Amino acid sequence: MGLSCTKIENPEVGRGVTIGGTNENEEVDIIVDTEVKYHAETIEEIKKDLKFSPQIFLLNNMLMSVQFFENYTKEMLQLFHANGNRMEKELNRTLFQNEVMECTCPDVIFDRVNKNIRYRPLHGPKKHSFGLLTARRIFVINDKIEVVKGEDIPQYTSIDKPFYQFKIEKSSRRGFIRLRYIDASKVSKVPDDTDVTYEPIPGTSNSSDSDMYEYRTITDLRTPKRIQIERLPERRDTLPNTCFTTRKIRKADTDLLETNENGENMVLKEEDLVDTVTYIDAEGFMNHFKNVLFPNSVGRALGFDATEISLTDSIPGKVFCNLSDEEDNPLPCEVIPCVKIPWPAEQAFEFKLREDRPTITDLRTGIRFKWPTDDMIKEITSMNCVAVPKGYWMKKGENPDASIEWEIAFPKAERFLEARMSSEQMRCFLFLLVLHKTYIEPYTKHNGLLVEHIRCHMYWECEANYRDWPQHRLGLRLLKVISNLADRLAQNDMPDFFIRNNNLFRNIPNMYLQFAQKVLHDVLQAPTMYFLRALRNIQYASGDFYTPLDFKDLYKTIDPVPHINIFRPNLAILNMRQKKYQDTETQLRHLRELENRRKWTERKMNLIMKENERRESVDSINLDWVCEKEFDIHKRRNILTQFVDIFIEIAKDSAKIGSQTQTRFFLKQAYYLTRIIENTSAEFISDARDTLELIASLEKDCNKRIATDDNVPPMTPARNSVQIDSSISHQLRNNTINLNNLNMSYNMTGTPLKESQSFHMKKKPPHINRVKSVDPSTTRKSVSFV
């Protein structure tokens, strides 16, 4: 039954086989009654939203109208099962041939999204310029360096031995490590930087001075600067001495060496008190990569042309350079140099043993959901990570070890988790990125809230409740996600998903976090207008993609106050007073003068109006718009009609490029809204029934395709037993929306993954909730929405 809004009238069936006192005819009746009840209740809930929470209704339907994928399930299989990451394989083939390096490209899903959509702001400094929703990340791993765990040093032959071997040394900051050289004999001369122990300098007590320091220092570090291209050295299989540094560390047992066995005082030398160790210098490594390796060899191997390489910018841990698409539009990339390290079990032990990881139980079926599952955790912890030469810079005080500290990153684990997000969760992720791209990134650049923070927040949200992400009520869920993110910004706390004790906000200036918090607060106050303004910047890259929603037309429909153009001319003033002259020639000259003045006035007024219209088109959406408590009957009909039309068009497109399941989903949504129109007023019945006939015809075609493809339609989804934790209420302007009263949602409808990739622990559902499937040979009449 699934997404089919169908009805069976007196099905002709043979003699039923009784099972447990119920024959097949009764089984069919049970399914039909359940489906009819489901559709009726769904329509009632949509009507409640439209009447009591119009902003939520508008947001839910707007989000459904925007598409990022042709067929999410099929594309995920292509990306992660069939073809793998083609771009990564091609780049590695080139890097293996020309460099002692390899790369990891974790954002394969976003690469697919960037092929389907373009971000094109309609106002601002980059007006009408095409861009990507997110920059492509390329982690470039230096294979000349091997990082080992513990004291067990691998033994190699002289042929396959890596040139440099390091072991991991703990840092005082979670999420960072030091790389200590095992054999420093290969380094001819290493500069002796300091002989102090590892104690950070405490910050000043003057808050204003410290605030100024955190703003100037950290903002300057995160402001991209042009690279300084240097000549490539003759030997490319080694690192220059500037990539290494030595430190003197006090020995732990120096107190025991003050006297000898006879109790006599000993003359201690420096080597008795301290050890001289060699570290790979993060700052020196980064400078060598961005100024030497990338512009001279690695950049070309990655596909960047010489012009773009000469314009490369950089911050600690990242190099910014652009590729180009077929139409010469820039495709921004972040190239991240790094070294491969084992999974940091000591720092990430909590991820594996997390005791408060929620397990959600579906009370209807008894199935328990958990994300990530135990199998997923086992696979993730077997993956390698990378160390990025970023360094830790403190907001207050100075960190003398910033140049030798490397940040731990998890590109493979991130790619693994994102591949196991549901389509609704991924859509929420992308909508957050659209908000960030529109309202935050243009002002904070590489400071404050970043894409990496939004990514981490989405992991926490998926873990908190993997089950409750209904596609047709995604707006309500997204507001909860935004509210939780605003709370994290207010608390200045964003724990790393893999290393929980690592707060990703701890070295970000408060002013940037407060700015992002204010933006999200404003979004929660007026979600319809903020999302409408942001989503209109999304444009489909191809005409063969889905039909876009006309946001401009929707805005004109829902805006209750028409914009009055103060520059609109009063036509009466154009009828200038005529004078009468006795002389015919003077009279004609006067009339010609009046006509010229009238034309000049019209021309001037038209120019003013065009200029005003142009300005309104730049920023025409009023973010201070106050939503009516209830739409009038005609506005309600117009809004519903617009969404019905776009859902029907998306259903038609889905039949061509998407899935039949998605086709039926949008036909179902169009059916629900059309039934509401039909029941609104007698004058709307005729048009509504014409639309219902069209929907029924499209559904019939969809069912034929399903039968031809031998696909069995899924069962009608039941409601989620687990509700959204909506303990908060968001005050909308002149309208209070209590999320707790709007959290009635339904099961997701998606293709289940293999057992090893599923997100639930199997439990046999109660027998009373099981309905025997209908014999496909049973003759059933054609069903329709009407």
Give an overview of the whole structure.
By secondary structure, this protein is of the alpha+beta class. The protein has a domain at 571-618. Helices cover 42% and strands 12% of the residues. It is built from 22 helices and 21 strands. The strands form five sheets. Strands 1, 3, 4, 5, 6, 8, 11, 12, 13, 16 and 17 form an eleven-stranded mixed β-sheet that branches. A hairpin with a 5-residue loop joins strand 12 (318-324) and strand 13 (330-341). Helix 1 packs across helix 2 (54-64) and helix 2 (54-64) packs parallel to helix 17. The model is unreliable at 1-22, 193-209, 562-575 and 715-786 (pLDDT under 50).
Keywords:
786 residues; disordered C terminus; eleven-stranded mixed beta sheet; disordered N terminus; three-stranded mixed beta sheet; 22 helices; 21 strands; alpha+beta
Average predicted local confidence, pLDDT: 78
Strand percentage lies at: 5-15%
Unreliable sequence segments: 1-22, 193-209, 562-575, 715-786
Sheet with the most strands, sense and barrel status? 11 strands, mixed
Q: Give Rg in angstroms.
A: 33 Å
- Count the beta strands: 21
Q: Kindly state the percentage of residues in helix.
A: 40-55%
C-alpha geometry: globular
N- to C-terminal distance: 16 Å
Secondary-structure class: alpha+beta
Count of DSSP H/I helices:
22
What's a concise summary of this model?
The chain is of the alpha+beta class and 786 residues long. The strands form five sheets. Strands 1, 3, 4, 5, 6, 8, 11, 12, 13, 16 and 17 form an eleven-stranded mixed beta sheet that branches. A three-stranded mixed beta sheet has the order 7-9-10.
